[in-house]
Design a protein that fits this description.
- There is one protein chain.
- About 30% of the residues lie in helices and about 25% in strands.
- It is of the alpha+beta class.
- The protein has a single domain, classed as (Glycosyl)asparaginase (Glutamine Phosphoribosylpyrophosphate, subunit 1, domain 1), CATH 3.60.20.
- A hairpin with a 5-residue loop joins strand 2 and strand 3.
- The longest helix is centred in the C-terminal third of the chain and has 15 residues.
- The structure holds aspartic acid.
- Aspartic acid binds next to strand 8 and helix 6.
């Protein structure tokens, strides 16, 4: 019997899937693996796009977005513009299990977190503050980089789960939310179709409900990488200007096959499968 599979976006996905693999090897569920893996990236202060150490908004406040989805039940939980929690994925999971609702934002998300035992934590590191100060003093105040940890898992019982977490676009407008916590855009999981998670410019990804689309392509029979490629192609065909931006997606099907694709070069993802880890740098082939 297999011990499970975990797939995660970007270079930081490597440490994340290792933690997910440890959770799966210990008999954890796909959702346990998603939370354990994403927390590793969130708690790494050197990562400036996720969790603790993430770049703040234009006011110098770190606002985070995170979500989870259970492929067995289609249960979901999400938070957006959450402040004062270093690992928002755990709050998103708690919203799924302990709230009457599925999506809490801003002040309400923070209040829910405190009610459920999450303390108020410092989320702005000295380095992130310094970058914000530089940005404030620069004549050309463009946003800074952004990435998301999107993590998908299949456990030994055959259940899929998906999660993602980001601090969003650096120096974003206060309250800005991208695709990541939006079910269907940033992530989707259904045991009967597969799981997917997106990363890249949220303002574009959410126009296509990219993760849902990838799951639907798998449900229709495409293998994971082909499903991701089909979603990227549709995006590029409908809005050619997206070619300038990164929009990428990873996918995992109910058989445990994993893949990923993007609108342009530069995307990478990590896979853990039965104790073996691999890392793939995606090369985009334009038709
Ligand atoms: N999708 C994220 C957002 O728009 C950022 C990223 O993954 O690059 O907030």
């Amino acid at each position: 019997m297999h011990r499970g599979v975990a797939v995660a976006t970007w270079k930081f996905g490597q440490a994340a899937v290792a933690a997910s693999g440890a959770a799966l090897s210990d008999g954890g569920s796909a959702m346990d693996a998603v939370e354990a893996g994403i927390r590793v990236a969130e708690l790494d202060a050197s990562e400036h796009s996720v969790g603790y150490g993430g770049l703040p908004n234009e006011d110098g406040v770190v606002q985070m977005d995170a979500a989870v989805m259970d492929g067995a039940t289609l249960d979901v939980g999400a938070v957006a513009s959450l402040e004062g929690v270093r690992a928002p994925i755990s709050v998103a999971r708690r919203v799924m299990t302990d709230s009457r609702h599925v999506f809490l934002v801003g002040e309400g998300a923070g209040r829910f977190a405190r009610k459920h035992g999450f303390g108020v934590e410092e989320t702005l590191t000295d380095e992130a503050r310094r970058k914000w100060q530089e940005w404030r003093g620069s004549p050309n105040r463009n946003g800074d980089g952004h990435d998301t940890i999107g993590l998908l898992s299949l456990d030994a019982d055959g259940n899929l789960a998906a999660g993602c977490s980001t601090s969003g676009v650096g120096f974003k407008e206060v309250g800005r939310v991208g695709d990541s916590p939006l079910i269907g855009s940033g992530l989707y999981a259904d045991n009967e179709g597969g799981a997917a998670a997106a990363t890249g410019l949220g303002e574009e990804i959410l126009k296509f409900c990219m993760s849902f689309q990838v799951v639907e392509f798998m449900r229709a029979g495409l293998p994971p990488t082909e499903a991701c490629r089909a979603a990227a192609s549709r995006m590029l065909a409908r809005r050619p200007e997206t070619a300038e931006h990164m929009a990428a997606v990873v996918a995992l099907d109910p058989q445990g096959r994993a893949g990923g694709y993007a609108t342009r070069d530069g995307f990478s993802y990590a896979v853990w499968r039965d104790g073996e880890a691999t890392y793939t740098e995606v090369t985009v082939v334009r038709a």
